Amino acid sequence: MRVSYSPWRSLLGWRCLRCGRCCREYSVPLTQGEAIRYILKYGSVVIPYKNKSYLMRKLDGSCCFLIDRGSYTECSIYYDRPLACRLYPFYITTRPLPDISEELARYELGKRNYVFVYLDSDCPGINRARNISTVVRKAVELWLKYKAYRVFK
């Protein structure tokens, strides 16, 4: 599935609607540490593929930890969920994506220091709140915390 991204400055905000779309439509990549921890803690829930690790999916294609409650969904390991889940729908990178306004994606970290922040345009929670500066700041802080541990390559 090809992801369509919007630069953060073009949006009003984001709020999770607990629809479960992200858990149904995307494979969940794991860091090496997460893969080891989840195997030890939850058993056979990790799938290796092309030198990477992903959470196992159920027969319906959804994440193995997704619980469908009918009108909403929830994660059975919410407080222990992977970094990819904690960051979704944000995509943060040190280089701008092609064909998307660099200016609208730039997030200043300090003098001459910045990252580029995008959100998955197809997430139903986009523009469901007016909090874009707050949620972007929190996502960047989380990203930087893990970047310090060299999780991203």
Quick structural summary:
The chain has helices spanning 21-25, 32-42, 83-87, 102-105, 132-148; strands at 5-7, 29-30, 46-49, 52-55, 66-68, 73-75, 90-93, 106-110, 113-120.
Content-based structural category: alpha+beta
User: Could you estimate the helical fraction of the residues in percent?
Assistant: 25-40%
Uncertain spans, ≥5 residues at pLDDT below 50?
none
- Secondary-structure element pattern, one letter each: EHEHEEEEHEHEEH
| Annotation, overall tally of beta strands | 9
List the keywords:
single chain; four-stranded antiparallel β-sheet; alpha+beta; 27% helix; globular; 153 residues; 24% strand; three-stranded antiparallel β-sheet; 2 domains
Describe the secondary structure blueprint for this structure.
Elements: E1 5-7, H1 21-25, E2 29-30, H2 32-42, E3 46-49, E4 52-55, E5 66-68, E6 73-75, H3 83-87, E7 90-93, H4 102-105, E8 106-110, E9 113-120, H5 132-148
Antiparallel strand pairs: 1-9, 2-4, 3-4, 5-6, 7-9, 8-9
